[in-house]
Fold:
Amino acid sequence: MHGSRYTPNSGIERWLDRRLPIIRFAQEHLSSYPTPRNLNIWYVFGGILTFCLGVQIITGIVLAMHYTPDSRLAFDSVESIMRDVNSGWLLRYVHANGASMFFLAVYIHMFRGLYYGSYKEPREIIWILGVVLYILMMATAFLGYTLPWGQMSFWGATVITNFFSAFDSLIPGFGTAIVTWLWGGFGVDNATLHRFFSLHYLLPFVIAAVVGLHIWALHVPGNNNPLGIDVKGPQDTLPFHPYYTVKDLFYLSCFMIVFAYFVFFSPNTLGHSINYAPANPLQTPEDIVPEWYFLPFYAILRSIPDKLMGVLALFGSLIVLVLVPWLDTSRVRSCRFRPLYKQFFWILLVDCVILGYCGSKPVDAMLLSTPVPLVWIARIGTAYYFLHFLIVMPIAGLIETPKPIPDSIAKSVLATTPAE
Ligand code: HEM
Structure:
């Protein structure tokens, strides 16, 4: 796509370039990669996500050296990591809080994409690969949460795998057969823990491969930008290095301060204390609540009384994201020029927060809260989530009159920069 400006400087570089042009590749895709000159803070999260993936893989590999995926030993092996292994507590807290930080970053990254219309033509594949990454992240986080074999690990695994039994109402026995197959037996047990561990180790590498595709797909059309307009020429771009390497590193440092706060000062705030009790198949905890990043989906699931419909709504809420590039009918990409849709964007964000709140409440509170039972708020929230994508998005694009769009990135940037 972009002409190569790399010239090998030494004999070794020339030799390597003819056989494996890896330096040329790094030069074109990292160092001199032409990047729109107006990228703002919300564009640093892709890099932060890549960092989070690296942290999870490195800490995970070392944790796995000390962890035992056996239902009789798993809980104690985690306690031994916390108490006996050198810096084991640090490894575990970084890994556990790292998952939360990863999701925090991915939510910002996704809403950024929605706000600036980064999913629109020609970036549909970047978006779809993003949704695949998100689903893979959810699967990985769910599998990992099972591994310490605490009460919430065990019961969370039981509840989530049981979703599939809902298919019994379509084809009798089909759902149960899936659940038994997933469990590797007739209950969540040793076989389940073994396969969950194996898959939890595998998936991050699948994620890494899909990230490669995601960035490859990004580097074909190039980045979108806050104005949502196309790059018209070299005056609109800057080389990635040093401009964006420095900016990304600065914001990565800020992000690491938040990360470090949780690891060192509040390592269990985002988790559940009951997971420090060993798994007991004979005692169901009072509330089975997933980690914070799953709560909006948990609310969608529980807002619908029929089990099958609830499960379908849950899957539907993810599938609808894949369709976003085609549901948005607007001519312009960025919400900066979309006065009508911009308001709905913020409503969607608040809706997801409200759904998350509803998902965090125990079932009793959902049904009995006054004046409006929370379950009804969750239902309205669920309805809005689907309406937003299926109705608001297509219609807003058709009826809205966008604001005038700048001619080019350079003109817009220079218009707001004081003359030198
Ligand atoms: C493991 C998770 C992910 C990683 C490591 C990752 C990485 C990246 C990176 C490095 C970029 C370029 C820098 C930036 O624009 O921030 C990017 C861009 C993008 N990502 Fe992701 N991403 C992930 C997940 C997702 C998800 C879940 C979505 C949406 C569902 C998504 C949608 C996009 C889009 C649309 C762009 C292009 C943005 C633009 O040019 O305006 N990504 N991603």
User: Anything to note?
Assistant: The chain has a mean pLDDT of 96. Strands lie at 34-36, 237-239. DSSP finds 16 helices and two strands in the chain. The pocket of protoporphyrin IX containing FE is lined by residues 43, 45-47, 49-50, 53, 106, 109-110, 113, 116, 118-119, 123, 126-127, 130-131, 133-134, 207, 211, 214-215, 218, 223-224 (CB under 6 Å).
